[in-house]
Amino acid sequence: MTSPIRINPLDLTPSRAIGVSIPFNGPAVFNSTYTTKDQIKSNLLNFFLTNQGERVFNPFFGANLRKSIFEQLSSNLTDNINNIIRSALEIYFPLIDVQELKLTPYPDSNSLEIYFSYSVSETNINDQITIRFQQ
User: Fold this and answer.
1) First and final C-alpha spacing in the chain
2) Burial status of residue 26 (CB atoms within 10 A of its CB: 0-12, 13-18, 19 or more)
3) Per-residue pLDDT tens digits for 25-60
4) Average pLDDT, stretch 53-82?
5) I need a labelling partner for 17 at 20 to 30 A (CA). Which of 42, 81, 83, 117 fits?
6) Distance CA 116, CA 42 (A)
7) In angstroms, rounded to a whole number, what is the distance separating the alpha carbons of residues 73 and 40?
8) CA 54 to CA 130: how far, in whole Å?
9) At 74, which helix (H) or strand (E)?
10) What's the predicted TM-score (pTM) here?
11) The pLDDT of residue 73
């Protein structure tokens, strides 16, 4: 028997902002998010773009992905990044179910593209993120 789909009570008031979106490029620096789906995506982007040690009072938060663009791109590196992302998501985002995590290295431009599709447990939220890190 499957559990019922839950709707976050914050989504029931569409005119009330529940967070800020990334990137910070709004007219007053921040753009607000109004749904749980949008805020989860912003939180995940923040996680992927943060290196450990950058977050005040939470030095282990972040995926440390930007430092990988200075390493030799190889299958060993992509396997290591894949493991780092999955284990960190289990700690910081336990309700996120990874549907697909695809890392594509581009050695000629020394860049790495990450495609990440996910769902959120016990909700109908499904989304994806694509980030390309370049030197």
Assistant:
1) 48
2) exposed
3) 767 778 888 888 998 999 999 998 899 899 889 898
4) 82
5) 117
6) 13
7) 29
8) 22
9) none
10) 0.80
11) 72
Number of neighbouring beta carbons within 10 Å of residue 92 = 16
Residue 83 has φ and ψ, to the nearest 5°, of -65, -40
Number of CB atoms found within 10 A of residue 114's CB: 21
Tell me how far apart the alpha carbons of residues 40 and 79 are, in angstroms, rounded to a whole number: 25
Q: Which of 38, 48, 19 is nearest to 127 (CA)?
A: 38
Q: Is the Cβ–Cβ distance between 117 and 126 less than 8 Å? A: yes
- How many angstroms separate the Cα of 36 from the Cα of each of 9, 66, 79? 9, 27, 31
Region 108-115: mean pLDDT is: 85
- For residue 33, the one-letter residue type is T
Residue with tokens 């336990």: 94
